[in-house]
């Protein structure tokens, strides 16, 4: 019988190492040892990587030891039991060993007696967060390991060996040789998303133009003359008032008057036409009272309008200090102060006004200010332009998700895609227990864009959906457009998606009550009647605007709108800004979004079941109306169990095919074909009759 090992610290044979005169170069893939075949040794490399080509340096290979046969009595374990693993530890790349993560050995080796808990643990090395290098896990020797088995040597990290036992530690106890000594696993880490290749430098403001300085001498004369005439006019009608202040804006000057005691405000407001006559003004707007002041404001147009150029607003300190990437500039108010808006706070904007009032210039100023303020990684655009000629100049910039959509039918599909994207984002938020886009992006950055399940987390930009003419879309596909706009307006704010909608026909069939209820922030340009002003703002006032950028801005939370002279940017400036961006970075359109928009973008349409007649339910709908002898949307809803929007589309398609007649008010539509004609149609079109 062989004597049992003494409890003193055993003498472990040290592997012979040659002292190289020069440091050896880092090993390459050909220098590293290949994994030994099964049965050639106790240590076997196990491939846990997904692809051999992606892991030429065996960073994702596990090291597992298989027990030797139990030695007979009188034999000792050979100190050279694992030459391969010692060679691997000596030749391992320095950069991999420096990023090693030391963990507790799992499996049976981690569950030992209470004596093992007194053994000091090896110093821990923090795991590397590099996405390209998997964490290499090594384990300290188990306390009860046989003394004859040497520990795996490794390159020192922070001047302390990875696998080392303190000198003052007690001697390890004996352990059966059949139990594994080392057991380590490597969990592959998914790589972080690639950094976006699109980088747009800061756009110089020199591409924009300055506005000329006004003649201050003529301005003073005009203010004094109008003030005197205004007081004389009021006194002639028996209204006593005192002039407090005159605030001159770019296009309008507001004269602030304080009525005498006992004078009704309604008496002043009824004199607007008389005041305009005496001042020889095109129109006078009276604000009674001024919000926050004990005064009445009488707004008189200036004889010479000062142009508000966009450059002076972009270069302002207020715009530069704004932190939100959705900050836009609108113009200057009556006092000449800068007026900005944050789309993230609105969160949607409705712009309406008659032709030539300045809607398109306002939209261009919004877009250009967003281009100056944000990068393609922060804000993306989805532009819909049924008029074809307004927004096409922006094609080719990297901020666009897809090229500018000009077909009204495809526009409905684009809005359908936006609804789908909104729902997809909310699913991602729910999976990561966050509530909005900013929280999700912040969490993704903290986790290095890898979630708890090891899946990739993408950075989600803000999406601004711009519709230049809503009236054309409502004529082409009213049901789909209104439904999509309402869903986006109700839910898209937290998903980081914002609507900017413009129309030149502010009627109730275009700006419906549902749209108005979900878009609280509005801009009204000059309109022809008070009815149109009430349709936009729910109050009058827009019918007295001067046009050419004169607007009433009513943001969310304000009881009364603010009169603003919109900033001006011409086509040459827009072309210069867009050309600068195109030269810096090209557009990267999303092919998947383009394909979805092409096929309609609605969930009801399926590419697998499409028929030459459009909707796959057309054959059943035609058979249904021919059998019933009449056609109506409610009939298709009951018989085919469809929604109202799809049933209405089926009726419209059957009218185009000549199956049913035109709309006749509340009466059902007339069926124009007989049963025999239906059978012939079904045979010709390949329907199953």
TrEMBL record:
Biased amino acid composition, Low complexity: 79-90, 108-122
Domain FtsK, residue spans: 336-534
Keyword presence, Nucleotide-binding: yes
Biased composition annotated in UniProt, kind: Acidic residues: 1-13, 65-78
Region (Disordered): 1-138, 160-179, 591-618
A Pfam match: FtsK_alpha
A GO term for molecular function: ATP binding
Record keywords: ATP-binding, DNA-binding, Nucleotide-binding
Statement: the UniProt record of this protein carries the keyword ATP-binding: yes
Transmembrane stretches, start-end: none
Top-rank lineage group of the source organism: Bacteria
Gene Ontology cellular component terms for the protein in this record: membrane
Binding site for ATP: 353-360
Feature: compositional bias, Basic and acidic residues: 14-24
Signal sequence bounds: none
Stated family: Belongs to the FtsK/SpoIIIE/SftA family.
Protein name: DNA translocase FtsK
Organism, as annotated: Candidatus Caccousia stercoris
